[in-house]
């Protein structure tokens, strides 16, 4: 099977070949003809399967062969809208649109929060065929009447499960209510939860169904391994592994933004080039760090959880879980950054006694034990007792057990969370559990959710695509061709080397909505 045989036009095939890909992935093989047929589509694919090309290529083909549409003012009308949950994923998808459509006369633009809105308005005024956007910034444009979607022909919800997890369902419904009823709808999701099925039932009309991977499975091309270690030796072990194995491109996940910052600083002191990326970083800093990591000038990128859905780097060799995630599904998304589209990769987890229950939950989810290996010189103390995870902002990102629940605010648009109360900054616990009084004369933080002219919210925070303690980071993506299969990791005896008491299970990760709609901690 080749891209030539999928019904794509010569300019599209030529662009794909120039990017170095000749063989489509399974999701591309099924999705491209389905989208070209013009009907609705519900597609489920594990991360790293090349689904971006699975919908961008046929959308470009359809728009290029359809009659051109202009508005009353004579400019190009927006005919395709692609909604994504995070800024970096939006940028990635729009770059793919431009790369694949380089020989076509179609125009596209991307819009998300955290940056000025005026350049986006200028692009819309000049006329575009395809818009890639996050829900919050799109609603800003719709409220300001700077975007006209009355001629829309194709709608894509990408990473739909992530959008629901991040609390965007109401924003999505507001957008859908303003769109023309007659259009082609494409819904892509890594999982088919009950919420996704409900959304699909309300959105899609007799859709084609594609599912190319089981729910919550890890890629067989990723070699997974656990290194037991004491919590205060994690940073030293990570430095040892990077230097001993001469790793040049390592994506490291921490549980908190503060932990990511501190770890990056410590690695830099160990003569390892490292930067942190999370929701508190400016958009320019996030973009710069991703670019340096992608081109190999940055050795280590330290990220928080929302990054798990977006960083897409050809043949990324190593992913390290410095902290195990509180939500088992996030483990699957994290290690899915390597071993993509047939390439081999390695996922290492540094696990201390505090995280034994998290490991057990992960192994239950993926239905397999993860092999363990003790590193000489870093043997864990068999008498160590589990401790709870420090509250956000207190710890340095090193392991820990579950943290107590704590009330959270709903996520803001584009993923920013309004979860931290004043008394809880720097990880401090409120003295009496009561809400702190507002200073006299203080202006309200919000203004009905209305955007400012510079695209920032009135609370001064960019619409960062991140929950508290997380970050969104997505690098541009290319279609993935078939690559040699790697050896499957060997099984192991979970807990054989990680003896000790189990920490208390206190619920899901802070700020992350559960699939039942309840919010943990």
UniProtKB/TrEMBL annotation:
Biased composition (Gly residues): 393-402
Gene name tied to this protein: rhlE_4
Reported function: DEAD-box RNA helicase involved in ribosome assembly. Has RNA-dependent ATPase activity and unwinds double-stranded RNA.
Region Disordered: start-end pairs: 376-521
InterPro entries given in the database record: DEAD/DEAH_box_helicase_dom, DEAD/DEAH_RhlB, DEAD_box_RNA_helicase, DEAD_helicase_RhlE, Helicase_ATP-bd, Helicase_C-like, P-loop_NTPase, RNA-helicase_DEAD-box_CS
Protein species of origin: Paraburkholderia haematera
Protein name, UniProt field: ATP-dependent RNA helicase RhlE
Domain Helicase ATP-binding: 32-210
Record PANTHER family: ATP-DEPENDENT RNA HELICASE RHLE, ATP-DEPENDENT RNA HELICASE RHLE-RELATED
Motif (Q motif): 1-29
Pfam family name, one: Helicase_C
Residue ranges with Polar residues bias: 416-432
Gene3D superfamilies: P-loop containing nucleotide triphosphate hydrolases
Cell compartments where the protein resides: Cytoplasm
EC code: 3.6.4.13
The UniProt record lists the keyword ATP-binding: yes
Family listed: Belongs to the DEAD box helicase family. RhlE subfamily.
Entry keywords, A to Z: ATP-binding, Cytoplasm, Helicase, Hydrolase, Nucleotide-binding, Ribosome biogenesis
SUPFAM superfamilies: P-loop containing nucleoside triphosphate hydrolases
Compositional bias segments (type: Basic and acidic residues): 451-461
Alphabetized PROSITE patterns for the sequence: DEAD_ATP_HELICASE, HELICASE_ATP_BIND_1, HELICASE_CTER, Q_MOTIF
Reactions accelerated catalytically: ATP + H2O = ADP + phosphate + H(+)
């Amino acid at each position: 099977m080749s891209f030539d045989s999928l019904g794509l036009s010569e300019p599209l095939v030529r662009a794909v070949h120039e990017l170095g890909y000749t063989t489509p992935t399974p999701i591309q093989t099924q999705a491209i003809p389905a989208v070209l047929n013009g009907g609705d589509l519900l597609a489920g694919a594990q991360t790293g399967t090349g689904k971006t090309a699975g919908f961008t290529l046929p959308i470009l083909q359809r728009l290029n062969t359809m009659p051109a549409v202009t508005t009353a003012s004579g400019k190009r009308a927006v005919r395709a809208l692609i909604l994504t949950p995070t800024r970096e994923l939006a940028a990635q998808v729009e770059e793919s649109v431009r790369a694949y459509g380089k020989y076509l006369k179609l125009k596209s633009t991307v819009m998300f929060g955290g940056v000025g809105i005026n350049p986006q308005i200028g692009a819309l005024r000049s006329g575009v065929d395809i818009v890639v956007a996050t829900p919050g910034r799109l609603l800003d444009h719709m409220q300001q009447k700077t975007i006209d979607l009355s001629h829309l022909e194709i709608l894509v919800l990408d990473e739909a499960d992530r959008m629901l997890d991040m609390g965007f369902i109401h924003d999505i419904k507001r957008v859908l209510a303003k769109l023309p009823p007659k259009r082609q709808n494409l819904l892509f999701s890594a999982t088919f939860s009950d919420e996704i099925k409900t959304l699909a039932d309300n959105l899609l009309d007799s859709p084609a169904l594609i599912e190319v991977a089981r729910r919550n499975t890890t890629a067989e091309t990723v070699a997974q391994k656990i290194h037991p270690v004491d919590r205060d030796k994690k940073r030293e072990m990570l430095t040892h592994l990077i230097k001993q194995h001469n790793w040049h491109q390592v994506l490291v996940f921490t549980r908190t933004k503060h932990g990511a910052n501190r770890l990056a600083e410590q690695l830099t002191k160990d003569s390892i080039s490292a930067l942190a990326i999370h929701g508190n970083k400016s958009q320019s800093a996030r973009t710069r760090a991703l670019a340096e990591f992608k081109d190999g000038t940055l050795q280590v990128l330290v990220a928080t959880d929302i990054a798990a859905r977006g960083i897409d780097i050809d043949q990324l060799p190593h992913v390290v879980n410095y902290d195990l995630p509180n939500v088992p599904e996030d483990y699957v998304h994290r290690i899915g950054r390597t071993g993509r589209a047939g390439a081999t990769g390695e996922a290492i987890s540094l696990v201390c006694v505090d995280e034994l229950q998290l490991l057990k939950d992960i192994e239950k989810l993926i239905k397999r034990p993860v092999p363990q290996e003790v590193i000489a010189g870093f043997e864990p103390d068999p008498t160590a007792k589990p401790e709870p995870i420090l509250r956000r902002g207190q710890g340095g990102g090193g392991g820990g057990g579950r943290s107590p629940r704590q009330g959270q605010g709903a996520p803001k648009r584009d993923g920013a969370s309004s979860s931290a109360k004043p008394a809880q900054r720097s990880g401090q616990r409120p003295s009496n559990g009561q809400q702190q009084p507002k200073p006299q004369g203080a202006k309200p933080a919000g203004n009905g959710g209305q955007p400012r002219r510079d695209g920032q919210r009135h609370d001064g925070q960019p619409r960062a695509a991140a929950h508290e303690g997380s970050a969104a980071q997505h690098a541009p993506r290319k279609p993935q061709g078939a690559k040699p299969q790697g050896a499957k990791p060997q099984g192991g005896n979970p807990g054989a080397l990680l003896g000790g008491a189990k920490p208390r299970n206190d619920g899901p990760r802070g700020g992350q909505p559960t699939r039942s709609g309840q919010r943990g901690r």
